[in-house]
Amino acid sequence: MPCKFLSLTLKEIMATITFFIRTQSDDPKKFVSVRCRLVVSKKKQLFAQTGFKVIAGHWSKDNQRVRKIAEATYKDEVNAGLLALEKGITDALTLHTGEITKEWLASTINKINNPEAEENDKENELTLFSFIQDFIDNAPKRINPKTGNPVTYKVQREYSASFEYLKKFARKKRKTIDFDDIDLKFHQDYTAFLQSQTVSRKVDDEMVDVPMAKNTIGKKIQTLKTFLNAASEQGIKVNNAFKSHKFVSVKEQTDSIYLNEQELEAIEQLDLSPVLCAMTTTQKSDIENQCFISIFLRFWVTRLIFAPCLYAKKGIRAVV
Question: If pLDDT is split at 50, 70 and 90, which confidence band does 3 have?
Answer without folding.
Answer: very low
